[in-house]
Specification:
Blueprint (H helix, E strand, L loop, with lengths): L3 E5 L6 H14 L2 E6 L4 E8 L8 E9 L2 E2 L10 E4 L4 H5 L3 H12 L4 E4 L3 H6 L7 E2 L6 H6 L3 E2 L4 E4 L2 E4 L5 H15 L4
Parallel strand pairs: 1-2, 1-6, 2-5, 6-7, 7-11, 8-9
Antiparallel strand pairs: 3-4, 10-11
Length: 188
């Protein structure tokens, strides 16, 4: 039986940051489930950069069904966790069911991959204190306030925590995460 990986997300998540790890991990042989506040069709977004804008723009992205509601997740069934970015983490961090899930992964030192605004979730449970991370560069002060040492790098590995800035860093992010996964939760 293949090891299970959990992706936690919601509406307004960045399309590429959900679907790239979902497909890459399945390609590797893992059983991947997507959890959200409720079982429903999620509406993702596309963040991109336009000349003349001071920040990224947002357009409608793909839709995708959530396999589970957060309340249905048993963290003990999963070998690792993926936390995509986009705008979803900004409201998901307030969900008590999700905070319980996140805490379970950090308490048991299971592999966690986070990208872009995803570290807002791990910050909400105190999971970044004393850790080295990267995130979307605009979150540098948030990461420092959460007790993390921020690095503006494609990917930062701190033990079982693998973080990346945004979707352009996917290849190094997943390469490093798969290195951690193969050591801690190999495909069987």
């Amino acid at each position: 039986m293949a090891a299970k990986i959990l992706i936690v997300t919601g509406d307004a998540a960045e399309s590429l940051e959900v679907l790239y790890p979902y497909q890459r991990l399945r390609e590797e042989g893992y059983d991947v489930h997507i959890a959200a506040p409720a079982r429903k069709k999620l509406q993702f977004v596309v963040h991109d950069f336009e000349p003349g804008f001071d920040t990224y723009t947002e357009k409608p992205g793909y839709t995708w069904p959530a396999d589970l509601a957060f309340s249905e997740v048993d963290p003990g069934q999963y070998a690792a966790l993926v936390i995509p970015g986009g705008r979803a983490p900004e409201y998901l961090r307030n969900d008590p069911e999700l905070r319980k899930i996140l805490k379970a992964f950090f308490d048991t030192d299971k592999p966690v991959a986070q990208i872009c605004h995803g570290p807002l979730l791990t910050a909400a449970i105190g999971g970044l204190s004393g850790r080295r991370v990267t995130a979307y560069p605009a979150l540098e002060l948030d990461m420092q306030a959460a007790g993390a040492s921020f690095r503006d790098a494609e990917t930062v590995v701190d033990g079982t925590l693998v973080s990346a800035r945004a979707w352009p860093d996917h290849s190094t992010w997943m390469r490093e995460f798969l290195t951690v996964l193969r050591a801690k939760a190999p495909v069987t």
